[in-house]
Amino acid sequence: MRPTIYDIANKSGVSKSTVSRVLNNQENISPEAKQKVLAAIKELNYMPSKLARGLTGNGFDAILALSHRSVSSTSGNPFFSEVIQAISSISENYDFDLILQTSKNYDDELKKIKNKIDEKLIRGIIILSSSLDDHYLDELDTLKIPIVIIGKLEKEYNYIYSVDTDNYADSYQMTQKLIELGHKEIACLHAPLDIHVSTDRLNGYRQALFDNFLDIKSEWIIDGGYSLEESIKAAHTLLDGEKLPSAIFATDALKAFSLFQVIEKDGYQIPDNFSLIAFNDTSYAGFFSPPLSGINIPTNALGIKATELLFQLINGETALPKRNIIPTQLVLTESILRKK
């Protein structure tokens, strides 16, 4: 049976509270008492559990990872599973536990977070996507706990930092590449516009068309939802239209995957009938034939950078950039052709 702080107190002849103060590196302890406690710890080979550290005052060694999206919308999405794996791996290196949280709405989420902070369950937070609700982030900032968002920040906060790619510029670049290849009729299958990443990707597409004096056709800009079923339905809607585009920009790999399926089912081919470019994900790469042109999201790098940044903040480092951008690279393959 592993020794407890009660055993240490009995062995060293001091009170349990004195043992607790030694374990938590607190002051107002006599050198003699401290020496007795340390000797007892060594003799008993005592290793404090995380539960014990939590109960003795300093709190648990844990961070919280949360998403604003429902479980149904993140299930099967490789971004979330990959980024959680990266966060978990780095947390383990720091001997911290990772707590995952889902919520029904922002009010419910804030309540849960406040409870965890009050109970000293967490020492930092990673948010997996950036909210469009500034009030929510304002509320989080008042909690005075280190927070890193994987996504975009519009405002400056005291305790909130961000790690992201430049989604607007990347979307603009991909759409511009299609235009340079002679495509003037370019559709967009996008994700719901309730988070920054989705709006930035759609806005980059729109701006590229606008800057090249091309029509922005609402019937070619279709919300593909979060699930595979919704995305396939949106792809059918696009391809069932009276007039078809020559190229399609998909704002994530799920949308591209759906387009591949529907295009092939309808008897079309990529790139002969449609040039396709998209934000890609390594989990989907093997499903695309021909290989997909576009920008691979550095999911692992985002998770690692966000977690390392959070631990720097937990350890008291404050002279750190509030906004951090991970570079990306456009890869061109056989999924796009020059327009004849």
Helix-strand blueprint:
Layout: H1 5-12, H2 16-23, H3 31-44, H4 50-55, E1 62-66, H5 71-74, H6 78-93, E2 97-101, H7 106-118, E3 125-127, H8 134-141, E4 147-150, E5 160-164, H9 167-180, E6 186-190, H10 196-211, E7 221-223, H11 228-239, E8 247-250, H12 253-265, E9 275-280, E10 293-296, H13 299-314, E11 323-325, E12 330-331
Parallel strand pairs: 1-2, 1-3, 3-4, 4-5, 5-11, 6-7, 6-8, 8-9, 9-10
Antiparallel strand pairs: 10-12
Helix pairs in contact: 1-2, 1-3, 6-13, 9-10, 11-12
Question: What this model shows, in words?
Answer:
- The protein has 340 residues and is of the alpha/beta class.
- It has helices at residues 5-12, 16-23, 31-44, 50-55, 71-74, 78-93, 106-118, 134-141, 167-180, 196-211, 228-239, 253-265, 299-314, and strands at 62-66, 97-101, 125-127, 147-150, 160-164, 186-190, 221-223, 247-250, 275-280, 293-296, 323-325, 330-331.
- Strands 2-1-3-4-5-11 form a six-stranded parallel beta sheet. Strands 7-6-8-9-10-12 form a six-stranded mixed beta sheet, with helices on both faces.
- Strand 6 (186-190), helix 10 (196-211) and strand 7 form a beta-alpha-beta unit.
- The relative contact order is 0.12.
